[in-house]
Description:
The protein is globular, with a radius of gyration of 27 Å. Among the domains are: 3-131, Rossmann fold, CATH 3.40.50; 133-200, Serine Threonine Protein Phosphatase 5, Tetratricopeptide repeat (Alpha Horseshoe); 338-386, no CATH class. Helix content is 68%, strand content 6%. The chain has helices spanning 18-30, 42-51, 68-77, 95-103, 116-131, 135-148, 152-165, 170-182, 186-199, 204-216, 220-233, 238-250, 254-268, 272-284, 288-301, 306-318, 322-335, 340-352, 356-369, 374-385; strands at residues 11-14, 36-39, 56-60, 86-90, 108-111. The protein has a five-stranded parallel beta sheet with strand order 2-1-3-4-5, sandwiched between helices. By secondary structure, the protein is mainly alpha-helical.
Amino acid sequence: MTLEDGKSLLFLVVDDQFNVRRMVQNFLRTFGYTKIIDAPDGEKAWEKAKGEDVGFVICDWNMPNLNGLGFLRRVRADQRLKDVPFLMVTAEVAEEIVAEAIEEGVDGYIVKPFQAKTLVDKVEAILEKRRTPQPLDIHLSQGAELLKKGLAQEALGEYESALELAPQSPRALVAAGEALEALGRDQEALDRYQGAVKLAKRYVRGHDRLGALYRRLGQTEQASKHLQVAAAISPRNVRRQVEVGRMLIEQGDTGKGLAALKAASDNAGDNAALAEEMGEILLSAGLNDDAARAFSKAVRLDPAKVHIYNRLGIAYRRQKRYAEAIREYQRALLVKPDDENLHYNLAVAQAEAGQFGPAKETLAQALKLRSDFVEARELLARLEKA
Length: 386
């Protein structure tokens, strides 16, 4: 279905409140948009979107199971759906919420409560922009497609054409910087990114690109500075907060680093992979108590990940909390009883706790599983001499 055929588009209305879904559908029908399906949350909307020829999404932000932002991410990541116009409905207009939605590729947002004409005007404005893109947008879009295919020089040509049309466009400057980076022309890329954030001090993507390039060049203080600016503008971006936390901790600013990691955790919710990643960052920095809490969350969320018990055990051992380390290794062995490395780590914890007899028995089991386990044999020999 083409956008020129707007009244024939299939609309997907997503909201956890039935009355709101019905109201939006009535508004659309009043103005001639009659092909409409609906869903009460992001998960059910995703199932419908995969099976229907959806042409426009109107979606609430706050919903159970999968919220509007999570659904938007899935839509933008799907090859078939990535270009579907997406209008977000919010109950508030907080800057961080708007910034996060824009970063994820939303076409527009509307704040509750709203009238029928307000909604339809927004829908038609989005459709009109999609139907008749400006020359600048055409060059940027074509450049992005070329860059995706690895044709960086050709992409740069499109971006330079965009800059001829709009020399003060932060979007075009950052896009040109990305092509220059791909060509290995890092200093020129830095110049473009810096030009973008000078023109638009709150342009998140410009600060992100500067942060990433400075980090790759080993200039961590500059990288941290720009990523912190981006995080202040759009604090709900989990990946950025993790990177900010990692860099601040590496630089010795533990308090701010932990605050950034907490912000990431708060916005990510129950995410085992993120909790594990944070545990590794904290463990590497010697923040063993914080690492133990992160790993504990990870294993609570995903008990089948045996290696996390192992990392949790290490965090406890570093704090001389041997009983807790032993408990975690034993829990891991319930899941994977034939893992010789777990037996070895358990034996180390037992030995450090002064439990030499149990440690010898555990090492014997490790050697039974792998007879050429040199570290286990050496530790057993030391314990037998003790």
